[in-house]
Structure formats: C-alpha cells, structure tokens
Design brief:
Layout (H helix, E strand, L loop, with lengths): L1 E5 L1 E2 L1 H19 L3 E5 L11 H10 L3 E3 L10 H4 L6 E2 L13 E6 L2 E9 L11 H11 L7 E7 L3 H10 L4 E7 L9 E3 L2 E4 L4 E4 L8 H8 L14 E11 L4 E10 L2
Parallel strand pairs: 1-3, 2-12, 3-4, 4-5, 7-8, 8-9, 9-11
Antiparallel strand pairs: 1-13, 6-7, 10-11, 12-13, 13-14
Bound molecules: fe (ii) ion (FE2).
C-alpha cells in the first residue's frame, strides 16, 4: 500500500499545482491513498468548505490541518460535513469535527491524527506529549496497527523527540508547518519519519507569503494584510510504502518539484 502525503498547500498557487500534478503523481507512484495538509489552503490561513471540496475533487482523500485550522470562521458551520478533515487533537479552539480518523485499507488499519507542536507555536495547542498520550488512551480499543501523525510544529528537534518518544505507537511521523522540506527522510525504529515535508505554494515567496509584504512586516514593522505570493509553485510531498503483511512502513521517498 502506498500513501502520498502532500505538504502544506498554500493559497491558490498551491491548490493549482496540486490540481495539475496529482493525477500523474498517483499514476507514477501507484498511490492508493492521498493525504494533504490543507491548513494554509484558503489564502494562507485556514480552509473553507468550498476549498475542502475542491481539494477532494482533485483526488485528495484526507486533509489534515494545523495552527490555522479555525482562521476562517465558517469552518465551525460546515465542519460536520467535512468528514475527511482531521483537525489537531490538541488545538485549544477545537470543539467539533474529527480529532482523528481510523483508516482501513487492504488489511492495514491506522489512526490518522494531527498534533500541534509546543515550541514557537503561539500557544495554539495543549502539550503535545500529554495530548498524544491521551489520544493513545482514547483509541486503545480501536485496535489500530499504528498511528499516522501529521506533526505540525516549528522546531526540528521537537519533531525528532516526538518520534523517538512514541516509537512504539507512531509508525509514520511527518513534520509540517515550516513549509521548507528537509532531506532527512528515513525509516527509523520502523517509523517513516521526515522533519518537514515542505509546502505546495508560490516558489518565489517567503514560505508562501508575498516577499515585499513580508519585508514590510518583519523589517519595517508595518501592519500588513497577509498577502499570499502568486506565480508558479513548488510541489512537496512524500510517498510512504506500507508492508501489508508486517503492517509497517518499509520506505519513505521525498518528492520535490520546482517550477
Ligand atoms: Fe502552520
């Protein structure tokens, strides 16, 4: 079984590159299941019901989120209809929706979840370690083979610590949020791991945001509206192969396509 995980889709450029590449990537890598992080898909912050449906129509099966999950307030109105959306288990604003999703495919049963990191995340989530322990406890009777974690966090060390600490449970730990793909993908303790999958978004940008506006905001300290960069996009993702007999990942391959 092969799973494609797509890194943070940022704004229209990100959505467009997913739309144009997804079918051919699925064919090339013989993908059975596609999961994407969509927390920046609606103009850089959050997701709308329309964009959720758009990503699903492109062929994304499940969508994970992050610190910006609730940035577009309409999410609370539609969340019960967004059945394939997984919101962070430890987001302080969580009130409804899927806090995890059990996925069964070809005899493999795993629990897809989204956990927010602790460091430099503006205190959007509860403690990540306690949260994941609670999730394990809450789902212990579901008999999942492993946990598939989108670990939405800022710092590199934190993601590796999480993977090492929960190595008996989490067999796929994929970092998201920084939008910059790292080159450390590996199978460690039978866990498919990468510090950050990277983004799908405008290549000439500051992690998806307009360059001039980012300078205005950061250097000149001027108030800005959060303008998303436009233009050709980079596509970042990973392909994970799960052995259906061992019920464990056996490989992780990085994909990065620049314009
Ligand atoms: Fe994020």
């Amino acid at each position: 079984m092969r799973i494609l995980f797509i890194g943070d889709i940022v704004g229209k450029s990100g959505r467009d590159i997913v739309s144009s590449l997804l079918n051919s990537l699925k064919e090339e890598y013989e993908i059975d299941l596609t999961i994407a992080n969509g927390e920046n898909s609606a103009h850089g912050k959050g997701i709308t019901y329309k964009i959720y449906n758009q990503l699903r129509s492109y062929g994304v099966d499940y969508i994970t989120m992050g610190n910006h999950t609730y940035s577009k307030s309409e999410i609370n109105k539609y969340i019960e209809q967004m059945d394939n959306l997984v919101v962070p288990y430890n987001h302080l604003k969580r009130i409804s929706g899927n806090y995890y999703k059990v996925i069964e495919f070809n005899n493999v049963k795993f629990c897809l979840c989204n956990i927010l990191g602790n460091a430099l995340m503006n205190e959007t989530g509860d403690d990540m370690y306690e949260a994941f322990e609670n999730l394990i406890d809450e789902t212990k009777d579901l008999n999942c083979d492993f946990y598939f974690v989108d670990l939405h966090a800022e710092t590199t060390a934190e993601k590796r610590i999480f993977m090492e600490y929960f190595k008996d449970y989490a067999k796929v730990v994929l970092g998201t949020h920084t939008h910059v793909q790292t080159a450390d993908e590996d199978i460690i303790n039978d866990c498919a791991f990468i510090t950050d999958v990277g983004m799908c978004g405008a290549y000439e940008s500051i992690i998806g945001r307009d360059v001039a506006e980012s300078i205005m905001n950061n250097v000149d300290k001027e108030p800005t509206i959060y303008k998303i960069a436009e233009g050709p996009a980079i596509f970042c993702g990973v392909v994970i192969e799960i052995d259906e007999v061992k019920k464990l990942p056996v490989s992780i391959k990085r994909i990065q396509i620049r314009p």
